[in-house]
Design goal:
The chain contains 10 helices and 4 strands. The protein is mainly alpha-helical. It has 2 domains: 114 residues, no CATH class; 135 residues, no CATH class. The strands form 2 sheets. Strands 1-2 form a two-stranded antiparallel ribbon. The chain has a two-stranded antiparallel sheet with strand order 3-4. The longest helix is centred in the last third of the chain and has 34 residues. One of its GO terms (molecular function) is protein-cysteine S-palmitoyltransferase activity.
């Protein structure tokens, strides 16, 4: 099954690369005026081809990236915490370390209770398939057959999930694809009025068909880019927006409240009583190259689990 899944993913990726070649190739092969402009203004063609290669690279980079699997994240957190405890044991002594563990465990438990709500526990957040605890915003993806941190959606065109580990890369990919699609559409429109184009009806019909497909793709990409930009600004995911009523953490929250776009309340205050609003998404999405845009809520949960919260 894994081999078939891998072959299916690579089939999709080869198809996407072939589509880019299909839409770009006819312009340079058949439009003689464009070839002449290439010799007169090589920088223009070089810039366009650079965008084509950059978009294809970003597509492959995003498709091959890790969306942020829960099992891997918990393993890394536990390994880091174990290393920290060993270092602390050597420097401070075992007795003092045990006392500091008790304080940390109490603090972690308090924060975890605040987040999950009264009466909640880690026991009812265990994925029956992966057999791991699911932090807030995570979800089991049936296509990947793994739990994904900050699950957004499964993208069939990428052949992978979009989540905590690659949402930034996905946003930049659709941004670059939108610019490329717009630029290519303009070049196709200019080709229709070009004197150097072939005069056959076959070429004219092919250009019209490709242009219509490009405009349809451009409309879809613009809407997709605007939608995910909105998710970034409000620090939401597609899954949370569509399935909000089915998510346990959102059941007692008004629909106009976006809990992940606000500052974490201090320990001891009422649930969801916020001190200030801050759109974490914009600052982190465009500012971190690794694409890991984690709110303080998620960081707190992961640290609490690693430090031994019940």
């Amino acid at each position: 099954m894994k081999i078939l899944s891998l072959l299916s993913r690579w089939r999709t990726r080869v198809l996407m690369i072939a589509l880019h070649i299909l839409f770009v190739g006819p312009l340079f092969l058949l439009d003689h005026s464009l070839l002449q402009q290439t010799h007169r203004h090589p920088w223009y063609t070089a810039l366009y081809l650079f965008l084509v290669l950059l978009t294809i690279f970003q597509y492959l980079y995003t498709a091959g990236s890790n969306p942020g699997y829960v099992a891997d994240a918990l393993r890394d957190e536990l390994a880091a915490d174990t290393s920290l405890r060993r270092t602390r044991d050597l420097s401070l002594g075992l007795a003092k370390t045990e006392r500091s563990r008790g304080v940390a465990s109490y603090s972690s438990s308090t924060r975890l209770t605040l987040w999950l709500g009264t009466g909640s526990s880690l026991s009812n957040r265990t994925c029956p398939t992966c057999r791991v605890y699911q932090p807030p915003r995570s979800k089991h993806c049936h296509d990947c057959n793994k739990c994904v941190l900050r699950f957004d959606h499964y993208c069939a065109w990428l052949g992978t999930c979009v989540g905590y580990g690659n949402h930034c890369r996905f946003w930049w990919y659709i941004f670059e694809e939108t610019i490329l699609c717009l630029w290519t559409s303009v070049m196709y429109a200019m080709s229709l009025s070009s004197t150097g184009r072939p005069s056959s009806w076959l070429y004219f019909s092919a250009v019209i068909i490709l242009l219509v497909l490009l405009l349809a793709a451009l409309l879809f990409l613009v809407l997709l880019l605007l939608f995910h930009s909105y998710l970034v600004v409000t620090n939401q995911t597609t899954h949370e927006l569509i399935r909000r009523k089915r998510i346990p953490e959102f059941r007692n929250i008004p629909e106009n409240v976006k809990p992940y776009s606000i500052v974490l309340p201090s320990v001891g205050s009422e649930d969801f009583l916020v001190e200030a609003e801050r759109p974490h998404g914009v600052q982190t999405l465009l500012g971190k190259a690794d694409g890991r845009t984690c709110s303080i809520h998620e960081e707190m949960y992961m640290k609490a689990f690693a430090m031994g919260a019940p």
